[in-house]
Amino acid sequence: MDSFKSAGMKLKDFKPEKLGEQDSSRTDLRMISYNYYTRHKAFFKKADIDFKSTVVDVGCSAGVLAQNFENYVGLDLSEDLENVAKDNPAKFFVRADAMQMPFVDNCFDSFVSRHLLEHTPTPRKVLSELKRVCRSGGVLELPVKEFPFLFDPLNFTLQKMKKQPKKFGIYGFGHQRVFATKEWDEIITSTFKIKDSVKLCRGAFYNLICLFENILFSRKDDYDVPSQQVKKWLLKPLNLIYDLLNLIDPKITGSHTILYNVEP
C-alpha cells in the first residue's frame, strides 16, 4: 500500500486502531440481505478480474468485497465509511466523489463497481474517471429495465404502460435512473470496450424474496446501507432455502442484474 502514496494518491485514510470487536453485521453477507448475498455469489462466478491485482472498488458501500482482494481501496461518499474502515483495518478507504476521484492517472490495475452508475446523474463521467485511474479495465454490475414482473410488479406494469415509475423497488434506494441493456451498452462503449456481458439469472424464488425486501426497505433511499435492511433471524431460513435450491439449479436463485467485463 505504500506504493499508492508514492504514486501521489491523496488518500483520506480511515484506519484507526481496532476498537473492540468488529461489527460483523456490515461484512457478513448473510446478515446484510438475501438480495446482496445472492448477487455476491453470482458476481464472483462471472467477474473476470485478478484478485491479486491492485483494485479500486468504486461505490464500495459496506465494503463487502474488501476481503476478496489483496490490494484493495474502497471509495464511497457514505458518512458511514469510517465505521466500514474499522471493520477492515488492513484495507484503505477513501471518502470521495466517483465523478472526481482524488487519485493520479493509472494508479490501479483494475476496478470493481457494483450498482453505482444508476445512482449518479452522469454515469459517463464516472466511467471516464474509472478509465483515467486504471491501467486496465474492470467489472461493472448494473440493474436493467428488463426486470421480471415478480421483482417489482408495480413498476413493471407502469413501464409497460409507458408511465413514470414510482420511487419503489428497482427505482428505490436512491436510484437516479434504470437503463435498458441496450442503453447501458451505449453508455459503457462510449468509454470502454465490452469484453463480455452476462445477464445473471432471474429465478422466481429470488424475485419473490426481493419483492419482500423492496416493500419493506426501498423507500429508505437517503442512502442504501445494506446492513440496515434485514435482521439476521429473518435471513437464516431464506439462506438455507437458497443454498438448497442453488445446488439443484442455480437459475432458480439468480439475480436480475447484468455484469460487464470491460477493457480500455
Can you put this structure into words, describing what you see?
The protein is α/β, with parallel strands linked by helices and 264 residues long. The protein has one domain (2-263): Rossmann fold (3-Layer(aba) Sandwich), CATH 3.40.50.150. 33% of the residues lie in helices and 15% in strands. It has nine helices and seven strands, in the order H-H-H-E-E-H-E-E-H-E-H-H-E-H-H-E. The protein has helices spanning 2-6, 29-32, 34-46, 81-86, 123-133, 153-160, 181-189, 204-217, 232-248; strands at 54-58, 71-76, 92-95, 110-114, 138-143, 193-199, 257-263. It is globular and about 45 Å long. The chain starts with a helix and ends with a strand. Mean pLDDT is 78; it is low at 1-32 and 221-231.
Please write out the topology.
Layout: H1 2-6, H2 29-32, H3 34-46, E1 54-58, E2 71-76, H4 81-86, E3 92-95, E4 110-114, H5 123-133, E5 138-143, H6 153-160, H7 181-189, E6 193-199, H8 204-217, H9 232-248, E7 257-263
Parallel strand pairs: 1-2, 1-4, 2-3, 4-5
Antiparallel strand pairs: 5-7, 6-7
Q: What is the average per-residue confidence, as pLDDT, rounded to a whole number? A: 78
| Widest sheet, order of strands | 3-2-1-4-5-7-6
Would you identify the CATH architecture? 3-Layer(aba) Sandwich
The ordered H/E elements are HHHEEHEEHEHHEHHE
CA-based shape: globular
Instruction: Note the main sheet.
Output: 7 strands, mixed
**Beta strand count:** 7
Using the CA coordinates, give the radius of gyration. Answer: 18 Å
- Write the CATH homologous superfamily: Vaccinia Virus protein VP39
- Under CATH at level 1, the class stands as Alpha Beta
Low-confidence stretches: 1-32, 221-231
